[in-house]
């Protein structure tokens, strides 16, 4: 595997009052991936991004961005990063073109109208280039923030809660924009507390809670490893208790005794679909042998939300 584009090592951040916002964070971000940092409000997501971007100094530890230490080689490290903050802090009476062009200049980059044009067109802002920011919708203002972050051609883009407070339609539009950016070679790190955002977008997911990285995992592997499945049998006649003959399956009664729930997971089933199927076949045969009649059955797989809630609860 190639050298990670961001390497965070033994990172701590303690504020003056003694509050420790980050605790011994170790994290590698791979080149070209979409990495979702997931956590409840106040978990340390924004603090971690701020430290990596060099906006907040760590108490101790190291951050290396594309080979440059973000303290020793601050300008080099920072020039590789585009940051889209949560807050809309644009100059209300400035035009879209001037705002984005000015951002490029802040990084000491020579004027490049062709690049600014490409960025604006990719974000469907070209027709709005001469509009003042105050006249734009909330969604368009978000796009301007992304355009500003891309103005100096960064290799890494941080999106801090990119779709907080926007409607579902706009959220999906933003997801499309992020995918296009990744296809163009930009590494994307997004923080979110919307589980569906991480589930929809990310290649890998990190979970942060109380300033600690609880877990970092490939999304598919995470859902396979931790995502339990349930089989619900809707019974013809309700039961008071699970028959002793079915004790081996660890079944639960639900819906006032009219549902039998069998929970199984990939790790227990060895991750093999065939093994799961044979266990379920045996269960159904044993249910019939016990004289139970069911009128319907359905399966449900736990979502990333269930997994996330369980992880945070464990901590």
Automatic annotation (TrEMBL):
Q: Does the keyword Amino-acid biosynthesis apply?
A: no
Q: Which SUPFAM superfamilies match?
A: P-loop containing nucleoside triphosphate hydrolases
What range(s) does the ABC transporter domain occupy?
A: 6-235
Q: Which domain of life is it from?
A: Bacteria
Molecular function (GO) terms for this protein are: ATP binding; ATP hydrolysis activity
| Classification via Pfam families | ABC_tran (PF00005)
| UniProt keywords, alphabetically | ATP-binding, Nucleotide-binding, Transport
PANTHER family, per database record: ABC TRANSPORTER ATP-BINDING PROTEIN
What is the protein named?
ABC transporter ATP-binding protein
């Amino acid at each position: 595997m190639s050298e990670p584009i961001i390497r965070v090592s033994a990172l701590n951040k303690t504020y003056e009052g003694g509050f420790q916002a980050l605790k011994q964070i170790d994290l590698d971000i791979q080149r070209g991936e979409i990495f979702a940092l997931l956590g409840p409000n106040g978990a340390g997501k924004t603090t971690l991004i701020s430290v990596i971007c060099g906006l907040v100094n760590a108490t101790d530890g190291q951050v290396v961005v594309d080979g440059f230490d973000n303290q020793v080689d601050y300008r080099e490290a920072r020039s590789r990063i585009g940051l889209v903050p949560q807050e809309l802090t644009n100059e209300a009476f400035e035009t879209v073109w001037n705002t984005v062009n000015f951002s490029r200049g802040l990084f000491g980059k020579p004027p490049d109208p062709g690049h600014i044009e490409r960025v604006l067109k990719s974000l469907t802002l070209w027709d709005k280039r001469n509009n003042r920011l105050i006249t734009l919708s909330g969604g368009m203002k978000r796009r301007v923030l992304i355009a500003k972050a891309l103005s100096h051609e960064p290799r890494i883009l941080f999106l801090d809660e990119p779709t907080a407070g926007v409607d579902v339609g706009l959220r999906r539009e933003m997801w499309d924009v992020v995918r296009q950016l990744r296809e163009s070679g930009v590494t994307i790190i997004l923080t979110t507390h919307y589980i569906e955002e991480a589930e929809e977008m990310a290649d890998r997911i990190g979970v942060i809670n109380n300033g600690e990285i609880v877990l970092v995992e490939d999304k598919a592997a995470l859902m396979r490893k931790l995502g339990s499945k349930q089989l619900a049998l809707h019974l013809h006649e309700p039961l008071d208790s699970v028959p002793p003959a079915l004790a081996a399956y660890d079944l639960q009664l639900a819906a006032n005794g009219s549902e039998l729930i069998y929970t199984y997971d990939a790790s227990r089933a060895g991750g093999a679909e065939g093994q799961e199927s044979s266990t379920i076949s045996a269960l159904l045969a044993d249910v019939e042998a016990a004289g139970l009649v069911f009128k319907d059955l359905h399966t449900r797989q736990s979502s990333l939300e269930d997994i996330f809630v369980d992880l945070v609860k464990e901590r």
